[in-house]
């Protein structure tokens, strides 16, 4: 039986053993204290064997591991509610260091303080965050704290644009002179105050770079009337600003390209500078109401100025005198001519009497005969307009007969006169056309384009157009032009010239540079056919009677030269060739 | 012989990698340099053979040049001329070729 039993139950002898307690106490030390707290620790500690080394297992605070705490049989652990770092601070980091080593990460002694201040603020502690990261961050704050903010401050101070400058901002800071930095500060201040009047006059500026002007793009009109009655139309006013930019009384020789991208400029004063040319991209400033270019070194105005649109926002105040405009009579002769009052001399008095404007009694003789002819043309045009405006005025009033034409009340007379004087400029004469080669230079060696001619050369050019014989060419753009336009469309236009072969001709490289500048200023458009172009192929000067701001002016100032350019040899003044005087 | 050749309507343009393009004389003469080459009074060999060899222009570029020549001739007197599209990757080579050919 016993043997059978033993055979049947081979482990029966072993069954006596399992109830023995000694095997159990060996487990708790292996487990992490937190997990073992509920199950094993309770039984373990309820037994009367508190003499084992408690501090080693327990997560008791160091201040509590006195002997008294272990004397009564059932000892409750003192639990700490909260985060472990709070507990560490509470207990004192140095004493509990060894006990806490088994619980979790312990702040190192040196980095402890900064770590605590940081963690108080953070509120959230991700379990995966390591102590190392926090101390590193704290120390980097300490290290960088002294230098980094001051660097930011400096860059804000000296380079206030919201930089779209590509690289090396420090070098651009250095390049700009003290005067321009002052200008940049004024621009900044205007932006800050939302003042639409930006006064950069009298700063002795020799140059204005794009980065100084470009912050003005971000200007927004201040909503002043929003507190008015809710239904008033004012509520729906535009946020587009009307920038008034004053660059007068400086020493500017050229204007920044960026200026012509600011299409919200309404007033632009360039008075008393050293400009030799107003770029044709002035037409981009479509909201321009007032432009002052007096006191510069302009030989002519861009034709595109005439194309700034009419309407509510038309360019109504254009001040162009004095400027050394290209003269069609020698200055010695011009000096003999008197200052005239436009009203009286060419204007209304002569027209009203319907007399032919005779130049016989005018002091125009000899060399000045061309001027006399022009005055005659002007008189004819004025008279035509006078009749037309009088007729349209009467038609608008009552559509009555011609009888009224002769009798105008002073008020009516004044109104028509004003209308006449505010009329659009009148074309008086245009110079012969200079034909330019593929790269925009005059065809003949040694010849000059009209824009670069001196007074004498221009007078000779008027007299003898054969110096630039008419050329016949396709209306289509040249292959050079097409290729340059394709280059302009490329994003890497500024680097393209590095791809040209070493021995490429100078004018090709110049043409690429030219294309880049044209691109920056928003492109050129042919004044005849409206196509965009890079290289002008024709060039001529037109004299217009631009109704001046002031009524008194000299004879020669009656006519203002405008430079016109065409994009192909077929882009020339239309209609019959004018007779030159 | 030379007289006969001068009458021919078509001329041959040869690129430096051997491509030949037969182009109408009127179109080819839009390019100033080709016009001079083919002018019999200049007595160039090109005028006698009606064949222009371009050492500095490869076939791909010369093809575009020929396309341009026809385009320019077609739009000689047109009012509104659409710009011809050029492949961007060729624009520099075309610029150099246009400078060389004077067109």
- The number of distinct β-strands of chain A equals 14
- What is the overall shape of chain A? globular
Distance between the first and last residues' Cα of chain B: 29 Å
What is the tally of helical segments of chain A?
A: 20
Profile the largest sheet of chain B: 3 strands, mixed
- Quickly count the domains of chain B: 1
Helix content of chain A: 25-40%
Distance between the termini of chain A: 151 Å
Low-confidence segments of chain B, given as residue ranges, are 1-5
User: Can you identify the CATH class of chain B?
Assistant: Alpha Beta
Individual helix count of chain B: 6
The CATH superfamily label of chain B reads Potassium Channel Kv1.1, Chain A
> Using only CA atoms, what is the Rg of chain A?
45 Å
Compute the average pLDDT of chain B: 85
Give the mean pLDDT of chain A.
67
Global structural class of chain A: alpha/beta
Task: Report the sheet-strand fraction of chain B.
Answer: 5-15%
Query: What level of helicity do the residues of chain B show?
Result: 40-55%
Reported for the largest beta sheet of chain A, the result is: 5 strands, parallel
Q: What amount of the residues of chain A lies in strands? A: 5-15%
Most residues in contact, chain pair and counts: A-B, 30 and 31 residues
Biased composition (Polar residues) (chain A): 128-142
Region (Disordered) (chain A): 1-78, 94-152
Biased composition (Low complexity) (chain A): 50-66
Biased composition (Pro residues) (chain A): 19-32
